[in-house]
Write a structure and sequence with these properties.
four-stranded mixed sheet; alpha/beta; single chain; 8 helices; five-stranded mixed sheet
Amino acid sequence: MRIAVIADIHGNLPALEAALDDIAARGIAQVLCLGDCASGMLWRRETAALLMAREIPSVRGNHDRWVAEQEPGTMRGQDAFAHAETTPDQRAWLGGLPTRIIPAPGFLACHGTPESDTANLLEEPVHGHLRPAAPEVVRARLGADGIAARVVLCGHSHQASVTQLPDGPLVVNPGSLGCPAFRVTRPPHSHRSEARSPHARYAILHLPEDGSAPSADLIALRYDWDAASRRAESLGSPAWAYALRTGFIPDEA
């Protein structure tokens, strides 16, 4: 059995379409989304519409929650744009997504950690960049439900990783499908996350039928990132355009 895992699309419709085509070409029928679906400086309404039409099981990310629940006057940036462009039905869908999904016995899917959609599970900021967290830190963030699982799927950090926790689950972050770099400026720990290439990233989870240990492949997929970059530029976001084209944050951002 194979499951394709996507996360952190952030309204990047060409990346989503390319990934779904690639997944179908590989003969994989089951797709799971780990949230942060539509918020971004790209195709917010169209991305939500495609996910809803395909009925792709999805967990709710922090940006999904903010777009659905915050007052429009308090929003700014990508969330304000997403709220303005999505329909009431799409915002209701985003807000109603579950915070966890169990795609198979012994598996747990969440956005950040099992208990938080704004915390990274596998990383922590060090000197302005994300670095791997110590195993004991990850264990604490997993909590009882995460530790009891065979596999935990997470997103949020946009950092693709396959981590085998000692005496614990396999933890897979597929990376970001549609936003290869971003910067967090809010306290207490401002930092940047950079994939260092513009590829659309997702993961393929392998579940052997004989019950042996699961494994995962991390995929970095070419798509028309120049079109995505031009879209961000047309909407007045040169920093998003640069990140989409390069996988890095511009120093002047």
